[in-house]
Amino acid sequence: MEEKQIREELQYYFEEELLEEIIRKGIHKRFSNEEELISIGQPIRHFPIVIAGSLKVLTEDPEQGELLLYYLELGDTCAMTLQCCFGNTTSRIRVEAEGPTEVILLPVQLMEQWIVKYQKWRRFIFNSYYERLREMLEAINGLAFDNLESRLEKYLKDKALVKGSQELKMTQHQIAAELNTSRVVISRLIRKLESQGKVAISRGTITVLELRS
DNA sequence: ACATTAAGTGATT
DNA sequence: AATCACTTAATGT
What we know:
The protein is of the alpha+beta class. It is built from eight helices and eight strands; from the N terminus they run H-H-E-E-E-E-H-E-H-H-H-E-H-H-E-E.
């Protein structure tokens, strides 16, 4: 993607001068599907702004597996990463490309400068915090109040929206991992959804038939 | 044809 | 809802 396109994607979020700085100081990078941007325990030097595709953010426990928290799409940035910029702590989360994705990586030192310098940046950051917190709450609500069946349903619909396609090319094993459950359980629930006409299944792909959220 | 990997299932906790 | 143990089916070499 060229500079001109980057401007187009981001111009609604930032003022001209800031946009200029983002383009000049940011590193434009492409990631392929499943590629890892940030892993747990890693010190953060850059933070990402998504300009195409999407990222997924997960927590992980070496013993207990992983859990999907939320997605980052166009114009989103990662609150957990922002936290690391201020606190100088290491990452508590893992970030991975969901399909081919393009991001702009900005050095963390710019964060504090820009907070002071640009009003729009300030708003952008606070807004990001709010959005991420809201999504996280949603994830917690799911864990606390939903059974696995409705969690799975939400997960599939969400995934279809993020991917922009109801054809999900992924194994039940992968689905199970992101919901932190076992493949066998997913297999049974998915067959149930199939019998309800909500999804269609074949080896390696699952098609979400009812796309309404 | 054979090996590997994905998915389905009954029984048990 | 998790785990085990096993089967069946699809795909790769």
